[in-house]
Amino acid sequence: MKRFRNFILGSAALALAAVFAANVPAVLAQEGSSGTKRPAVRGDRMHGGFAGAPLISIALRHKSELNLSADQVTNLEKIKSHYESQVTPLQQQLTAAEKEIATLTQQSPANLIQVKAKVQEAEKYRSELRYLRIEALENGKGVLSTQQQEQLKTLARSRHESFHKPQRQPS
């Protein structure tokens, strides 16, 4: 019974981590942008929902609560900066590919061969963005102790729950 419970808890934690891992680059890029509009990538905060959390940014904002050393802060900042420098050009390329897809599909009749090629190109960019997100998260986890990782999960969970609280309707 204990193994089953641990399996369920482990599965839930893995699912939560996957949701976070799938959404960090877009959110981090938004934090690092200077007010410029960025492309909406899959898994982004779409339809007003909360799809993920920028875990490295959360860790940096809560460095005192997590008792991060100066070395840990420096390493997390380097990971975030490196990640953002890699993601920005990919997001720009993805935006351009999506615009081309929109243009191609507005033609009548649409050239499906060109559309397919552009869709595949866009997916290549999404795939690379997803990998970079996972890479950054793994590198970030390597900087934190097990206890700090657990505290960070708690902080992210509370942040996630605050976005999901039902809005009261005025009477």
Total tally of structural domains = 1
The total beta strand count reads 0
What is the first-to-last residue Cα distance? 48 Å
Largest sheet: none
What's the overall average pLDDT, rounded?
Answer: 76
List keywords for this structure.
mainly alpha; 171 residues; 72% helix; 0% strand
Characterise this structure.
The chain has 171 residues and is mostly helical. The chain has one domain. Helices cover 72% and strands 0% of the residues. Helix 2 crosses helix 4 and helix 3 (55-61) runs antiparallel to helix 4 (70-106). Mean pLDDT is 76; it is low at 12-53.
Can I get a quick summary?
With 171 residues, the protein is mainly alpha-helical.
Write the layout of secondary structure elements.
Layout: H1 2-21, H2 24-32, H3 55-61, H4 70-106, H5 112-143, H6 146-163
Helix pairs in contact: 2-4, 3-4, 4-5
